[in-house]
């Protein structure tokens, strides 16, 4: 069971279900590897212009952050098994999680009171 408040995200690649974790370190690694920020990466994904290699480069640090001992080659195989469309969907989940990271849901009563 994943805990989104801790940055955990469930990644489904074919028959494999992996727990990933979005951390500040993984976000920096993704941005550095891709050579672009998260917002631009999200735009590329939504436009369908993210490459297969970029999909893999987003997934690797997130899956490793979830405590999985995997290589980039492993993730390439997972993406191949799952198909690119499903893999891109999982990257979308990761990017949404990363863009909202650090946001505390807070207390509903405080939100209603405008605190």
Number of helices: 6
Beta-sheet strand percentage?
Answer: 5-15%
Form type? globular
DSSP, total strands: 2
Provide tags for this entry:
115 residues, mainly alpha, two-stranded antiparallel ribbon, 10% strand, globular, disordered C terminus
Polypeptide structure, described:
There is one protein chain. The protein is mainly α and 115 residues long. It has one domain (4-99). The chain has 6 helices and 2 strands. The chain has helices at 24-34, 38-47, 52-65, 72-82, 84-99, 108-113, and strands at 8-13, 16-21. A two-stranded antiparallel ribbon has the order 1-2. The longest helix is centred in the C-terminal third of the chain and has 16 residues, at 84-99. It starts with 7 loop residues before the first strand and ends with a helix.
Can you summarize this structure?
By secondary structure, this protein is mainly α. It has helices spanning 24-34, 38-47, 52-65, 72-82, 84-99, 108-113; strands spanning 8-13, 16-21. It is 59% helix and 10% strand.
Secondary-structure blueprint:
Blueprint: E1 8-13, E2 16-21, H1 24-34, H2 38-47, H3 52-65, H4 72-82, H5 84-99, H6 108-113
Antiparallel strand pairs: 1-2
Helix pairs in contact: 1-3, 2-5, 3-4, 3-5
């Amino acid at each position: 069971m994943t805990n989104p408040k801790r940055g955990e995200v469930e990644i489904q690649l074919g028959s494999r279900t992996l727990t990933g974790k979005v951390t500040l370190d993984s976000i920096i690694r993704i941005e550095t590897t891709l050579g672009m920020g998260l917002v631009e990466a999200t735009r590329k994904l939504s436009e369908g212009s993210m490459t297969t290699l970029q999909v893999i480069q987003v997934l690797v640090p997130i899956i490793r952050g979830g405590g999985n001992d995997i290589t980039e080659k492993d993730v390439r195989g997972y993406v191949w098994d799952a198909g690119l469309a499903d893999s891109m969907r999982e990257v979308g989940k990761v990017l949404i999680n990363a863009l909202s990271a650090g946001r505390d849901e807070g207390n509903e009563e405080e939100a209603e009171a405008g605190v």
